[in-house]
């Protein structure tokens, strides 16, 4: 199924690629979109070739001022002769004026011809008429000129001037364009020019908008108002500039209100010749290859990216396309047509989207039909659509109908997935599902809670090794378990009904006992698809086992020891030679029996604190602590100790079980007296600490080492410092009872201690804020 779908996908893509390639060739060779290409070319030209006009080019304009002073046009040719004799230092002089036929003053023609001869670097204009011989200057002038130049300028179909022919031919003679003739008149080698391999027709790299070149008035030059050295080694153009006189053309750099005069177009062409900066058009083959590059690149983009990213990539590709062609024009003086690449590129996505929609709808129809034919696992898989959205048999094969069927199928799958998720979340243990590549696929709510307790975060798709390292601090142990899991995973059976179940126990980061259970998962054909790990917290079970062992030890040893001692005393008392006085005998029996009763009381109180529901009532800590202090007055007095209860204790109400809380404080003060020094002072204080009352009990006893802070609250645990005080008996039940009671009141107990200096216990209990209940 997947192979068939992939093959159809590839065929669709290949079909789209072939179609857009054919369309690109068609636009390149046969159906060029010239209007779009010209617009893009004009925009690029205005931004790519804008530069200063050459200082070596000057235009002498026959402007409105000159017409006012010299009269209407045409002027006598004697004036041109006088002007020309003031330009003897110019590198070349070009007249963009048609001197056709003789003038009314033959002497003027002779004088002008003589001036042309004397200068020696003058170019006169000629132009071609379609189907007729070229129009040449008056023959005496023609004979004396250095060169004639064609001023013909081809105009594109949209009316703009963009190109010119560097040479023109009437079928018999070849005439250089005016700008090229100016270059030759200035001394350029015609042979070298003919070897530059430029095509006959080239595009003009306009330097800027109209009036970009330096221009002086004809009469200013004629009347010597312009310094003579202004024209030294300059290319000088003489042409019409006045209103209504001369020709003006729209160009890519012109504006709607201002066209460029013909003489300035010639100046732009001459600067292109001097700088060898003509713009050439790429050949059709190059255009096709470049256009195919952009089009096929975009085809790859739509193939690998999502629809959302395709929009961004489309904008990026078109931007890169336009900018790259702009840079090629700017730095290589080569224009590569944009219209085939641009138009076909913009067509690729709609075309591909259309084909993909057809493919998706067909595949959707097949998959939904196959799903409908399968046996339902659960009744909840069936979803009944509203009559308005139901897909009727034999209805139109519309997009909406496919969407409705897809909604129904997805709802069935969603219900099944929810059932599976709820089933997993309903499990009493943390579970995690991995694929065959050991990547995490699914976890339950209990698993997430467990990781939160560890201070870790589950990362989707994380690998098994990382998952284990988040649970286990012992790296060698984590590696050992990882190896064991991989071994179990490889030892699978072909039958999916036969599940391999393995387990291993370890300690997690919080020193809890965790049992890891392993189970393989299989596909419908029996291949291993992954595995499930179940994490079972055995801490409570192990703690109960330890407590059971401690209880058995307590009953078998600590409870038996005083009774055995009593039995031994009785036997000694029955023998005259070992008998003690009646007073000593009764005193020892009384002490041993009292020890037994204290052990039983402590054990029962601890059991009650753990298993009994607390009878909570409002209690004033001030009164409770005062009663506790009174209970120990005689004991403290016998050892010259004082118990000081702070006088400025506030009214401090808490919800508490009075009997259990009193016993807890009794144990703390009893320990302070037992492990304290004769004559010391015990201080009790109560302060408000946020939402808690904080009770501090400070003694001046033997102190407790910091490494023993945590273990002294465990059952049957005593600090080593307490063991060295031989006169004090105990099994470590007192502080365990205190911790259990305070924890049951939603409070906490901490301590600060320094060996040989003393200990302070801090008990925090929630403040009762409800005064009415008090």
Quickly describe the structure.
By secondary structure, the protein is α/β, with parallel strands linked by helices. It is 47% helix and 17% strand. α21 packs across α23.
Overview of this protein structure:
With 774 residues, the protein is an alpha/beta fold. The strands form 8 sheets. It has a 6-stranded parallel β-sheet with strand order 4-3-2-10-1-9, with helices on both faces. It has a 5-stranded antiparallel β-sheet with strand order 16-15-19-18-17, with helices on both faces. Helix 11 (284-304) packs parallel to helix 13 and helix 20 runs parallel beside helix 25 (734-744). The longest helix is centred in the middle third of the chain and has 35 residues, at 339-373.
List keywords for this structure.
six-stranded parallel β-sheet; elongated; 774 residues; 26 strands; alpha/beta; five-stranded antiparallel β-sheet; single chain
Layout of helices and strands:
Blueprint: H1 2-29, H2 34-48, E1 57-62, H3 64-70, H4 77-85, E2 92-96, H5 106-119, E3 122-126, H6 139-144, E4 147-150, E5 163-165, E6 167-169, E7 174-176, H7 178-185, H8 190-194, E8 201-203, E9 214-217, H9 218-222, E10 235-240, E11 248-249, E12 260-261, H10 262-275, E13 280-281, H11 284-304, H12 307-332, E14 334-335, H13 339-373, H14 399-425, E15 430-435, E16 440-443, H15 445-454, H16 464-469, H17 475-490, E17 501-507, E18 513-522, E19 528-537, H18 539-558, H19 560-574, H20 582-611, E20 617-620, H21 621-631, H22 633-638, E21 642-645, E22 653-656, H23 658-674, E23 681-689, E24 692-698, H24 720-723, H25 734-744, E25 748-754, E26 758-766
Parallel strand pairs: 1-9, 1-10, 2-3, 2-10, 3-4, 13-14, 21-23
Antiparallel strand pairs: 5-8, 6-7, 11-12, 15-16, 15-19, 17-18, 18-19, 20-22, 23-24, 24-26, 25-26
Helix pairs in contact: 1-11, 1-13, 2-12, 4-5, 7-10, 11-12, 11-13, 12-13, 13-14, 19-20, 20-25, 21-23, 23-25
